Structure formats: C-alpha cells, structure tokens
Amino acid sequence: MKIHIVNAFTTHPFGGNPAGVVPLDGPSYPEQSWLQQVAAQVNLSETAFALPLPDSDEADWALRWLTPAAEVNMCGHATLATAHVLHSAGIATGTVRFATRSGVLTTEASDDGSIRMDFPTAPLTAVPAPEGLAAALGTEPISTYETGPQVGDLLVEVADERTVRELSPDLAALVRCSDRGVIATARADHPNGDYDFVTRCFFPGVGIDEDPVTGSAHTALAPFWSARLGRDELTGLQGSARTGLVRTALRGDRTLLTGNAVTVIEGELTETTRPGR
C-alpha cells in the first residue's frame, strides 16, 4: 500500500503545506481506528485516504481527511495533494470527482501543472469577538465572523499584514475562543503585489498549532476579501514559516481554489501496519 507526502499550494519541495496521501484498493474503507493510527503516525496536519468508486455515477473516488487527532469535514490542501498524486501516477486525467463529508468536490488539472478545486463557499456571519480573543491572539480584532459548519473556524480580521505575520498566540487560550480554530487575516500591505491578502491559521482544537497553508479557510476568505476589494478573483498568501499561495475565484455559492503541488516522499506501508494486522 503506497503512501505519499505531498507539499500543496507551492512549486517548491520545502514550501507549502505537507499532506499524507494514501490511495486505497477498496472495496471499502478500513476501520476508523486504523485510519486514525496512520494519520497519527504520519503526524502531518492532514492525511487523506482515497478510495476508488468504480460503480458510482456521482463521484470517482471517496475521500476522507484525518488530522493526528480527529477526522475533519473539509481539507483543501490534502484534496489538492490527492489529485496531484492521482494525476502524477497516471491513475486519473482531467477532472476528478471526490465524494466527501462536504459533498462532491471536483478537481481539474491544467497543462501548467496547477490544479483547480471546486468547493462550497463558506457562509460568513458577523459575531462579537469571543471573550479573551484579543488576549489569546495578542492583538485587538477589527471584526470577527463565524464560517459555518463545514469550515467551523472563527475568521478574525486584524489591523494589517505586519500584525498577521508577527502573531504569537496563546494556543491554550485560543482553544476557548473557537470550537476548531482561528483564521487571522489582513489586507496585503502592497495592493499591486503578488497577493491581495495575508492569513495565518491556528487549529489547536484539532491538534494543529499552526497550519502552514489552509485551503478550506480560503472558502471563507474568498467572499470576505472579494466583498472588500471588489474583485471575484484574488490571491491569498498564507504567512506561515513555509508559506504558500492560494488563488481564489468566487462563484456565488462555490469557490474555486487553485494551486500547485510537489511530491517529496513516496513509500509503502509495511505488511505489519496494513489493515487487519
């Protein structure tokens, strides 16, 4: 059974967000406990498990995403990584449909190596800043929004790009401010530069102190910044230590996310680690 480590939302082997990808043979998923043990062993923000669906008219593969501690409803970078693996291995071409907890998600590979993903747009609901948020983040929020059940994070607008880049939050305190995590964002300092807004994402509630590049967050960031900047197509920079670029295109209730990916490790799960052993 093959396992791949792929860096998503980057063209560089040591940038972007690394994800584990495990294509399964089927006909069904192994037990949840086994999936969780593999995700914990890989110990990246998410590991994706893809299962072929040869008899389905709606989707080509089933796809599930697990952090080292829990299964999640949506993950952009591990979806991009999975599509990259399937295309690189010659298993898939063109459009691939994934059946997920968030419905059917479609990916499309381009000749330039980028992959475009079609995700549901996250609904934004303005809410008061939770008690203790400013102290936990280390800065006063300008505005705060809930992002709906599929994303499940608190989107927090802060003063400027420098503030985002210099955040050093109290992660233990941040857990009490959101069920899953916090998306901190600000407009780019240079509006005519390579990106339009900058973001960092902290998910201590699911065992991830800081996620390097978060695709799912951009389904909320796209409508947030498109409304403010007056453009439906934008580029976001996630300002983690690894950094990564996510191109967004708002299409009403759908958001298109585009990025590149690089495979950095390929291997096999040994016989003793396979399901049922």
TrEMBL record:
Domain of life where this protein originates: Bacteria
Keywords attached to this entry: Isomerase
PANTHER family: PHENAZINE BIOSYNTHESIS PROTEIN, PHENAZINE BIOSYNTHESIS-LIKE DOMAIN-CONTAINING PROTEIN
Pfam families linked to this entry: PhzC-PhzF
Protein name: PhzF family phenazine biosynthesis protein
Family affiliation: Belongs to the PhzF family.
Natural source organism: Streptomyces olivaceiscleroticus
